[in-house]
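Self-study notes.
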Amino acid sequence: MKDSFRQSMAWLHTWSGLVLGWVMFVIFYTGTVAFFKQEITLWSQPELVANPIEPVSALAFAQDYLQDKAPDAQTWHIVLPERGYGGVQLSWLSESGAGVVLLNHTGEQVRLRPSRGGEFFYRMHFDLHYLPRPVARWLVGVASILMFIALVTGVIIHRRIFVDFFMLRLGKGQRSWLDGHNVAAVLALPFHLMITYTGLVTFVAILVTNIIHANYTNYSDYREDVYIERIARPATGESSPLLPLPLLAKEARDQWGGRHPGEITVEHPGDSAATVMITGALGQRFSAHRQAIYVDGVTGEPLALSAPTGIGTALKGDLVGLHAGRFAKPGLRWLLFLSGVLGTLMIATGLVLWTARRRRRQERRLSIGFRLVEKLNIGVLAGLPAGTAAYFLANRLLPLDLPS
């Protein structure tokens, strides 16, 4: 009975890991690289000098720039850089059009080479870049379920899980691939389980919509609990000076217990009904919750505090924050990165092991399925790292004035 159960688990482990194994490799690989998203962006766009940007001074020169270049805009939007490095992104919307600029740590406009930097890997991690967003997120969600099944069944079928931890025999063909697979899996097993489960939590609303319908009568009630809702006030047409944004941001920071703002949106700047929405930064904070404070841009009077409510929402915010690892200091971020590398190697060795085990059986005539898996292994497992290297080099070697 035990042997038949273990054999069933071995079959499930093999096929749950194979069906979308290449998608899972892409997800793990890009997610691991994205732990250093900001650093990759600085490499890809060296015009962004790696000087720290203090939020208060950044808001001061951002407000000066917008008042000079877009005084009649309907909306201003300011995005401060993660972890204080990079640039300050400004955008505005007016009747004559829209504009987007980036300012460096001195408040000067920067002309950047057209690269998405580390953001490319971050978005590809769950949007897969080449597919429509709904399809990609469904695919990532299903791949995460299969990955979790593969991890659990992998623990069940390994009788000598702790012995395998110390067993790595090189130059032994199929045995070496199995040892490498086991070591990569066991060495960072808690991380693999955590990162897969917390990643799955981020897609629960997409994969299991019945949960929402069972707990909320209207979808608007769900959005009110989970997402930050904007407060809209119509413009009056009466001119009034906008309060200094650093002052408003300081008051928000005091209310949040020292947490810095991440984004500031100003509706109807220069109007007596100007509204300022200050959203807290996610960087260096464990939870992925985003709180927002609304204040009157002329008087500074608080209008509302928008924050997701409910135990379930709070738990999801903590799990998503744990998955993203934005709170991690450099030492912990390196540990997360190395654990992600082990997870990527675990998937890669598992895919190669599938072909290594079956090659001898099919020496005379290789099946279509075997050849497909082998070609996908070469294309994905070798192609993605090669593409990453080309991406890094192209960002620095191609001239800025090269036509797109």
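Second protein, same conventions, sequence then structure:
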Amino acid sequence: MQDLTNMNVLAPIIVTHEASAGYMADAYARVSEGIGVALSISSPGALNLLPAIASARADGIPILALSGDVPTTYEAKGAFQDGSALGTNDVAIYEPVTGLAARVNRAERLPDYLSRAFERLGLPNKAPAFLQIPLDVQTATITGEHRLPELPEYSIAAEASVVDMVLEKLKSPTSKSILLVGPEARKRGFAEKIIQLAENLNVPVAATLDAKGTFPEDHPLYLGVFGFAGHQRAMEALLNQPIDHVVAFGVNFDQRSTLCWTDELARGAEWFCCSVKLGQFYTAPVGKKVIASPELFVSQLLEAAQSTQSVKPLKSLSWLNSVLSVPLYPDEDHQSTAAGIHPAKAILDLRQCAPRESIVSVDSGSHRVFCAHYWQSYEPNQYLTSASTAPMGWAICAGIAAKLAHPQVTSLVITGDGCMLMHGNEIQTAARYNIPVVFVVLNNSAHGGIHVEAQKHQSFAPELTQLPTHDWKKYAEALGLIAYQVDDPESLSSVYQEALALDGPCLIDVICRDDATVPNSYYVKNNINSL
């Protein structure tokens, strides 16, 4: 372990909980577009890490999880924290949530196991890998030179006939088409190409929440987020407007991305669904399945489009203007009250103060919906959220990793008081290593994700969703951070600006209303109707 502290290329970050290590590795992999690595001890440590690995598996994030274990000579003897097959059997527990889970019993085989792990991490259906390494294997000496393998890259092109067919549909003088972007396309190379393609063909673009920011959210052709926490413009376009064609790039056709698999999604349109993950097509709308890498497919379409006339006639532009004329979201009451600041106000003011290229990590709760709705991001992986399982406290850890992956970019965390009770202790890691992250706690003294909706029901039991009002400013100061508390909406901007100017971590405790209407009516309606 001492070697870890003496390496220039690796910097170990010691966290307060193993799950936090996994969440950090998750975010690091997203922002770096590489892999993340998390280490733990066996048995309780590996089992604490498990929720983070399961979450990464659900989101398709490549994490290498390494755990130690008792020496092989201690197995089956009742050793303390034995994680082997006759102990807590960690490998068996990890098998369902990883692409590869294995125990390395011989030191000379470790390079082979690492090669297999890296091979699995690089597959199109990305998933974490778990290796358990007993103590005597760790301390053994192996000869020869061994280098970590490179991550394999899989780039699959679409058939030329498919490219020609899709492009012909998009270019048709009467075509009413939409491009829909999902998480598989959440890469910088794809983002550059999709902007050019949309502009070349005058085609509007929507994104699912897990791909938010992949297409710039202030672009004139942007429809907004579709699905959970979606924008009015995208919802109206894909649910209520006449559409001829939808080209989906790397979309997960899951519950939240499809409004609970609603039949109203682009009803009657011809779909072209592009993915290299064969399982993605199971719930996709009926249409042409394009087995190709989204980044390569969009490049093929762009190259073909640039060689031909691409200006659309007025008939199509009339439909386009109609679709884009719908406001991103309706005029809503963002009034703060004596009970607290409106969450939308807190988020809008932060977006106005923060640099354009900021990375924001968003947690789970009612603030998750407000952020998806009102925060704007402009590049891939500027907006980080765990979309599939939404573990509380994920963003607190993710924001730290985002800063480590991109030190030159401002890292923000938007979380809630319920999430702080889960992993709020991880802010001390930012203080310990002086990692400049701005933690914004929207403190509504409730588990907001269920509290707001529960208030609409006659059987509402507030004691089940309300939380004690904690002073997160004092908590953060006790852990070594500079901290602020804001209950006046007029003070938000000045506090944000002061916090953003610091060269170390800080926390802002924003006292918020617990009754603000969550802007998620489309999803809630479809979710209820589907039951």
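Instructor comment on the second fold: The chain has a mean pLDDT of 90.
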